Amino acid sequence: MLTYAPVDADQGVIQKIFYVHVPMAIVALGGFIAGGVMAIMYLRTRDRRWDIRSYVTIHLSIVLAVGVLITGSIWARASWGHWWVWDEPMLVVFLIVFLLYATYQPLRFSIEDPEKQARYASVFAITAGAFVPLCFGAVRMAEQVTHPQAATMTTSGPGSVTVTFLVALSAMTLLFITLCKYEMASKNVTATVRRLRRRLAGDDDDDQLSATGRSAAPQL
Amino acid sequence: MRATVAALLRKELALELRTRESVPAMVLFTVTTYVIFHFGLDRNSVEGDLAAGVLWVTLLFAAILGINRLFVADHEQGGFDGFLLAPVDRTAMLVAKAVALLAFLCLVELVAVPAFALLLLGPSLGQALPELLVVLLAADVGIAVVGTLVAALAIQTRARDLMVPLLALPLLVPVVLGASQATSPLLEQRGAAALPGDWLSLLALYDLLFALIAYAVFDFLLED
Questions:
Q1: Is ipTM strictly over 0.90?
Q2: Across the interface, do B217 and A126 touch by the CB < 8 Å criterion?
Q3: How far apart are CA A176 and CA A27, in angstroms?
Q4: Res. A209 pLDDT band, cuts 50 70 90
Q5: Could you say which of B157, B162, B170 has the minimum Cβ distance to residue A111?
Q6: Which of B157, B209, B221 sits opposite A110 (nearest CB)?
């Protein structure tokens, strides 16, 4: 797929990082906003599964955001000559959004009561989810736009660029969804194993052990 | 609703008048920070975008001090319980706290801005003052709303003092951006230029958006 799209005349082979960097950024931002929507669902239904979905989505989006910052830095070094460019709105916004979401887990883990933790984390996820588009608008206003726009890069070039980009974007989206499902499945299995083990031990008291996991991450 | 907000606001202001915990500390902090900037930048006077940056960074960090203290008395001395037992709308707490924080910020700026003009600012402030007041007010509303939300989020966590700046600073980046971009032409050495309207409208948009978000989610922070 990567050899199918033409090599950029200006930037050379390094431009191929575009097919990883941009889909990753789009999926990460989409994940942050989706996490906020799931948090709204949690506050409406008070179903713990929505809270865990929101947690898993934001958690994986943070991982992708680290990848975006690293690949973006490499691309910036190759095409603009600097690892970090301040008059580059996308980079700066991404850093701000990443710094904000980096406090999501410390916030969660510093609240012990699981119900309160879920509620507070949801409030954070909604606020931060609404902050993402606002911040993009604000910083875009501040800087002149030198960042290559995904839309212009994919529509002005030859058709193979568009195809490759769309394939990369859907691959990244599917990877993200798979990882989310994987982590959810892992949480479900852990909860089931814990329940069965407790039953084997002859302890039918469900509430007693539920909050005493080794990790502070939310559990079913 | 209005009576509740008024009662809560009276309580906040009476508390601050008697304990004098937040505002004097914030004022002292701003003046100390100007001294720090004087030595850190090694400059006797600043103007233009540097002046706007120094002013806004100082005010923002002073606001963090106030945000940190905002719910401490309610948390430690059962103010939340008393409020939740009362048959009143919970949004009243958000409004009262945000207005109280706004009042604290205005009081701080009453000293901090003249002190800035006296200690660090190169050009005179005189003719740009009305525009500066507009920017200050627009930014303060944003800081007060976001600060109230963050303070209510952080008060229940174990590491409250750590969570407040970590949460509030990234959220307030657009405020600092808008406010310092709008302030810098006012503080130019060659005389104040016009107030950039688009930055002011960014601040207004931010205030409006976060006021709506805070209104929507604040109730969930008070259920116990």
A1: no
A2: yes
A3: 8
A4: very low
A5: B157
A6: B157
